[in-house]
What we know:
2 copies of one chain form a homodimer. Chain A is of the alpha/beta class. Chain A folds into 3 domains: 2-39 and 220-402, Rossmann fold (3-Layer(aba) Sandwich); 50-215, Glucose-6-phosphate isomerase like protein, domain 1 (Rossmann fold, 3-Layer(aba) Sandwich), CATH 3.40.50.10490; 421-448, no CATH class. Helices cover 46% and strands 13% of the residues of chain A. Chain A contains 18 helices and 11 strands. In chain A, α11 (217-233) crosses α16 (381-402). The longest helix of chain A has 22 residues, at 381-402. Chain A starts with a strand and ends with a strand. Chains A and B meet through β1, α7, α8, α9 and α11 of A and β1, α7, α8, α9 and α11 of B. β11 (444-447) of chain A pairs antiparallel with β1 of chain B.
Amino acid sequence: MIRxxxxxxxxxxxxxxxxILREELLSFRHFVVExxxxxxxxxxxxxxxxxxxxxxxxxxxxxAQEIREKFDYFVLIGIGGSSLGAQMLFExxxxxxxxxxxxxxxxxxxxxxxxxxxxxxxxxxxEKTCFNVISKSGSTVETIANFAIILDVLRSELSERxxxxxxxxxxxxxxxxxxFGSENNIKMLDIPSHVGGxxxxxxxxxxxxxxxxxxxxxxxxxxxxKMDLICSIEExxxxxxxxxxxxxxxxxxxxxxxTISVMMPYSEKFSSFVDWYRQLWAESLGKxxxxxxPVKALGTVDQHSQIQLYRDGLRDKIITFIQIEKRExxxxxxxxxxxxxxxxxxxxxxxxxxxxxxxxxxxxxxSKVPNITISLDRISPxxxxxxxxxxxxxxxxxxxxxxxxxFDQPAVEEGKNFTYALMGREGYKHKLEEFEELYKExxxxxxx
Amino acid sequence: MIRxxxxxxxxxxxxxxxxILREELLSFRHFVVExxxxxxxxxxxxxxxxxxxxxxxxxxxxxAQEIREKFDYFVLIGIGGSSLGAQMLFExxxxxxxxxxxxxxxxxxxxxxxxxxxxxxxxxxxEKTCFNVISKSGSTVETIANFAIILDVLRSELSERxxxxxxxxxxxxxxxxxxFGSENNIKMLDIPSHVGGxxxxxxxxxxxxxxxxxxxxxxxxxxxxKMDLICSIEExxxxxxxxxxxxxxxxxxxxxxxTISVMMPYSEKFSSFVDWYRQLWAESLGKxxxxxxPVKALGTVDQHSQIQLYRDGLRDKIITFIQIEKRExxxxxxxxxxxxxxxxxxxxxxxxxxxxxxxxxxxxxxSKVPNITISLDRISPxxxxxxxxxxxxxxxxxxxxxxxxxFDQPAVEEGKNFTYALMGREGYKHKLEEFEELYKExxxxxxx
Lengths: 448, 448
């Protein structure tokens, strides 16, 4: 079960300067009905993520089971949309100590930071490791750089068995990984053509690593199906959670100046969910001079770091809290504690956490900072599946509100092209000239 | 060595709409000279952090050595200013795998999340664990809640030896921890009275955990001393790195609408440095409706998540990159790789990382997004010490620019008081009534 409480974004709670009027929300009803029917028609292409909950997972589960049995280490080589989903599923559903007490141990090689690469290589044993290389295009620089080094290690340490330690997740037809995989008899999983990186967590990109880690991927998809069902039948703003999230954020942004969308779970396990959300929200909606900046925070930790700013700084924020109602374990403050602190006696950590959230919300209401709370009855694949689909649909719908294409990312290319030029890649000489024109180091201070 | 390159915040690079004119920067010279002399006088009180580099570290080192010899696990119980500094020093200077290959293993109990508490308890062995409880006030809810449970565990498992597993770092005179520590013969370290949480990393708050972990704390202080020296003698904006950082950010914010300050290190080890900076910047300057929102990003990972927004979204950002020039280890892409990807051959991961940063910077210049780069020749205690002092002084100086007190955090109290009320603490009944008045749950959607 998930519950969305949006009382505190409404004008009745925080006033009209910062809050939304109910009639203002409802004034979008014609737009919503029209957009709703467009989205239903787009599900075969742009909104293809909406089809993913209905896929057949048999093959994914069979391959995952083989890997679980054969290997002690499972390393995902991928970045951005190819890693954030799996990371989120791993951290929210497998717990903080998975790698200490369970196998296969899981690592993500996303960055090209040599310190991180070394840290992973120092732990894994190559002959017991499976590498899942994930890239839709098959040519992502970081992914291919990490892969190229690993390929060399596999070939030199395992001789002819090297290809059995690799699984590629890539475009069904195009790209370097597909070609190399076919030529070398490497097991491959398909990323459906119409699914872009940041909408791909419910494709083999996220499902396969999840299955290898023992996560119930069918339950993930069940949750997503349920959310798809609700979002497909409900045209009414107040009953469609995806449209509601999109609209409250859009109105807050464009009419109340809330240019920042903070997501602040009161759960350590949800930390990576925010990283996944950050990519989805920023890369989909950050275009044409528009879009909110997604900001990651964590309760209660950031009460001691960011709440001063959120309450008394610029009035440019809307906050989404995530709350967990039931936990697998909890710890009680004992009765026999010193008098000065005995107001804590008998409370549990979970209770304190939730009371801190309530206290923070009340303080924000008082400062008229709009905030939404998403409550999960517990952390489960089903609930996470619902949340994933919810935010994907909210993001897709927001594209219509902002009148932008939420499925492309044109501004990302420029930096890549300059990087290719700097690395001497063929065909990029003109970018090198442009780089030298643009890039100077004129103003510097150096301290020894 | 650290180097600050601010070429790309200047109007000559990115134009006058988004960039700063040199004469605009220099027009602050009288303000700077005046403020400079005020700051020198304030070092005995508000700017007391500037005295910390000159403290005697003998006692800290002696106690730390004892702990290193006696214990296999070292757990810091503290939150916000009491944990972010130690976390930053640990992650930047001890590496990603410290807890796997070294002792004492280090954990931070900051949150009151039962999942995190359980994760730590599942690993440590009480009879081999030292707990360092850190709180200036001695009454921080999260810290005391975690401590109360640990106290009970220590007493029941270790009988009369329980107090030898505790070290308190707290106010030299006041508060519950000081009182309880004195009564129970617990070893204690002093947080100097004039040092607030977020400026305390170079006091025993950060230095003691660092010393226990084997970090050279004298080198940390040497770096901070060097930065203090530069900042104390240089009244010229272009030669004083702290004033330069403060002024470029202030002008970008108040005159160019850059309400967001992104910090984006191209180093995994610097991830927690940004968390430390986030608290410093947000809690110090986020008041009176002013202050930038600090945002954490990581290169290259966030090129695949946030750069679309940074380049093509709202023009509300100034970005600080952190770059590491030399690494302890590096990995080369081999020569014998498939032709499609052979432009990578011969490059190292470190080179690719830095070329990605250059490519990203060029793309941002093209989109006229102001950015500063701080380069460290290497990750060392000395360089980190310089950076810490640099940002503390930049923050303190910024208080004068914004005309606010950077050393208080008045807006944090309200949420705490509501939380106390919700927990039934004596004397907070009126807050409970206020809470019930403010807090309703009127607008909700629930999905089973």
